[in-house]
UniProtKB/TrEMBL annotation:
Species of provenance: Clostridium weizhouense
Domain Methylated-DNA-[protein]-cysteine S-methyltransferase DNA binding, first and last residues per copy: 73-152
Domain of life, source organism: Bacteria
Protein known as: Methylated-DNA--protein-cysteine methyltransferase
EC number: 2.1.1.63
Other remarks in the entry: This enzyme catalyzes only one turnover and therefore is not strictly catalytic. According to one definition, an enzyme is a biocatalyst that acts repeatedly and over many reaction cycles.
Gene Ontology biological process terms in this record: methylation
Pfam families on file: DNA_binding_1, Methyltransf_1N
Family per similarity comment: Belongs to the MGMT family.
Keywords, in A-Z order: Cytoplasm, DNA damage, DNA repair, Methyltransferase, Transferase
GO terms, molecular function: methylated-DNA-[protein]-cysteine S-methyltransferase activity
EC supergroup of this enzyme: transferase
């Protein structure tokens, strides 16, 4: 059984879910609770929210949470690659495909990106189109733009 709790943030209401050991989902809006969710603010969810809040304030650049996204082996490989994209930088779908060992898998990378169950913590917002355009994001293009601008604004704090 998963636990979930909702928070109001500067990018809207966010739901964070965990399975008792790791964060499993982040939702950009309140979901209707179904049988496999308990509404509970656990210690792990509180920590995830604390890190998210500090990220949105520009105070942290990297999350240190246990993550357990559910998906195929290929999806997990893509999601792992996404966690390696440095704060404040972007990659194209093709670059992510290359990092998985299959540079022709750009479409499959796009599908995996679209199915990312833990956006922000797994930074799929850092993946852009080959032409530099912002394409697709589960939270909407406005939130993707907000997150990228937040990181660009705070990148100077890294160096």
């Amino acid at each position: 059984m998963k636990n979930i709790f909702f928070y109001q943030t500067e990018i809207g209401e966010i739901g964070i879910a965990e399975n008792g050991n790791a964060i499993t989902n982040l939702y950009f809006k309140r979901i209707e609770l179904i049988d496999n969710f308990n509404l509970a603010e656990t210690k792990l969810i509180k920590e995830a929210y604390s890190q998210l809040k500090n990220y949105l304030l520009g105070d942290i650049k990297k999350f240190t949470l246990p993550l357990n996204p559910e998906g195929t082996d290929f999806m997990k490989k893509v999601w792992n690659s996404l966690t390696l994209i440095p704060y404040g930088q972007t990659c194209t779908y093709k670059e992510v495909a290359k990092s998985t060992g299959n540079e022709k898998a750009s479409r499959a990378v796009g599908l995996a990106n679209n199915k990312n169950p833990i956006p922000i913590f797994i930074p799929c917002h850092r993946v852009i189109g080959a032409n530099g355009k912002l394409v697709g994001y589960s939270g909407g293009i406005d939130i993707k733009k907000y997150l990228l601008n937040l990181e660009r604004t705070n990148i100077k704090d890294i160096f």
